[in-house]
Structure formats: C-alpha cells, structure tokens
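tokens incoming
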C-alpha cells in the first residue's frame, strides 16, 4: 500500500487515503490490465471505477464501477464519501413519463455471490462540491461504507467523457461515433 501511494505522482491528493491506511484498514489495490484499479476488502471487489471528466466550473461528478460480493454474506452499501468532494450519495437514474430523473438510494443490498453495476442510466455515485478540478488521467479516492462497518477505499480514474467504456473492454464495440 505504501509502495502504491509513493508511486503516484500526485501524492498530496492521497494524503487522506494515506491517513486511513495508517489506521490499518485492510483494503488492497491491484492494477488491472486496462490500467484501472481494483480495490478489495473482505471478499468485496470493486473494479473499473471511473468518473467522466466534467466541464470547468462544474462541481458535480458521477462515479461508475462494478462491485462483486464474494464475502460469504450479503453486503449492504450504506454510505459513500470522498475527501475530494463535499458530499456524495448513491443515486439511481430512471425514466418517468419520458423524463430522466435521479433518485437517492439510501441503502443497497448486494446478495452474496452477486455483483452490481453502477453504470450510466442506472446506479451511480453522485459527487457534489468538488474541492479541485479533475481532468482525464487524474485519480481520486472514494470510500464505500458497508453495514458491517467495513470500509473500502476505491481509487477512481477520471476519464474523458467519451471514454465511458474505458472501464470495460467488453464495451469497445458499443462506442459512439
Ligand atoms: Cu445523480
């Protein structure tokens, strides 16, 4: 973990993550083939966490990822936060009478052995009050909190808006022109 932190160029942006690590939280990271990170704690694996870059002046952002629950019991996602943003919530996008709406999701249960996708048009983490401007290539930390009290530190890669599928090579054929 320390090696991973020291290897990053923007070490200062990860001061909060470093502080959490020194508390002995059992999160671990592995670089995936695509360059995106994978975070794991007690059998819960979050992969391909990405956030599309937003225009200058925009303080909100969304995060998408896949979460697989191999922990041996059902997992409840109860809270999310990021040291880089003032507020964070789970949201779900839905169509109602032809209008796109977003609803807060207070708690999300992921049964043992199943996975859930946070993806455009559906579940996402909504971040508000960016403390700095992030551009494609940047990375910030997200903390997922589970009902058991377990927390998981997830590195989020900021990607170009058009690169939303960058988190998953399976979608390369679906890219828009
Ligand atoms: Cu939202």
């Amino acid at each position: 973990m320390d090696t991973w932190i020291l290897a990053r160029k923007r070490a200062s942006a990860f001061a909060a993550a470093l502080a959490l690590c020194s508390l002995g939280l059992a999160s671990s990271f592995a670089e995936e083939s695509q360059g995106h990170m994978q975070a794991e704690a007690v059998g819960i694996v979050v992969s391909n966490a990405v956030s599309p870059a937003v225009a200058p002046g925009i303080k909100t952002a969304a995060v998408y990822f896949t979460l697989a629950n191999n922990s041996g019991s059902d997992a409840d996602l109860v809270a999310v936060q990021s040291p880089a943003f003032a507020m964070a919530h789970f949201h779900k996008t839905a169509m109602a009478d032809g209008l796109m709406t977003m609803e807060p999701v207070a708690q999300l249960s992921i049964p043992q052995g199943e996975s859930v996708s946070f993806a455009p048009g559906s579940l996402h983490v909504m971040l508000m009050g960016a403390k700095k401007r992030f551009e494609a290539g940047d990375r910030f930390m997200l903390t997922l909190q589970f009902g058991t009290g377990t927390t998981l530190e997830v590195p989020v890669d900021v990607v170009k808006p058009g690169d939303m599928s960058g988190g998953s090579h399976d979608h390369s054929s679906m890219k828009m022109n």
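note: Residues 1-25, 166-177 have pLDDT under 50 and may be disordered.
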